[in-house]
Amino acid sequence: VYGGWRSGLGDFPVYDGKLATFTSGEVRVGLEVPVLRGGAIDERRGKIESSTQGVHIADASVALQKLDLTRTAAHKYWDWIGAGRKLNIAHEMLNIAGVRDKALLHRVKQGDAPQIEQTENQRAVIQRQSALLAAERALQKATLELSLFYRDERGTPVLVERSRLPS
Questions:
Q1: Could you tell me which residues come within 8 angstroms of residue 12 by beta carbon, excluding any fewer than 6 positions away?
Q2: Which of 58, 106, 131, 164 is the most buried (most CB within 10 A)?
Q3: CA angle, corner 158, sides to 160 and 161, nearest 5?
Q4: Whole-model pTM above 0.70?
Q5: DSSP 128-160
Q6: Residues 35-53: pLDDT tens digits?
Q7: Which H helix or E strand runs over 26?
Q8: What are the helix (H) ranges across 5-151?
Q9: How many angstroms separate the CA atoms of 25 and 6, rounded?
Q10: Does residue 135 contact residue 128 with C-beta atoms inside 8 Å?
Q11: DSSP string of 30-45, one letter each residue
Q12: What's the rounded Cα separation, in Å, for the pair 108 and 100?
């Protein structure tokens, strides 16, 4: 409930017409009933609901980061396996080139093949040795990258042994 009296005496500009009153003034009386003040929820409940939604958003953000981290760790794991497989292939290719080099040396000694074939094969052996070193470095790099995600109980990075590569 509210009430009051006001009197506006004098001349007022047109844009301030609300200040003008009757010559004796004017009485105001009213009743305010706050039936729907604040809508269907009050300020305190609104803040509680807002903070609850903030917690749900934070939980979803943490879950998304965990999922992204798991995905990245899985990629690093498969990169490590791929690097191990490439190293095995490089070993096999070097062994094949070595066996071929021995066979060509035997053929050259018997005069069955020209010396240039053995010399060319020696180039291939050196090239495959270089590929083997590159594959070993790639596996070391993949192992280091995997260790960022694979840790022991104390949180120390674990460098995975080559023996743990799947066959």
A1: 19, 20
A2: 131
A3: 15
A4: no
A5: HHHHHHHHHHHHHHHHHHHHTT-B-TTS-B---
A6: 776 667 777 888 888 899 9
A7: strand 26-30
A8: 43-110, 115-147
A9: 6
A10: no
A11: E----SSTTTTS-HHH
A12: 12
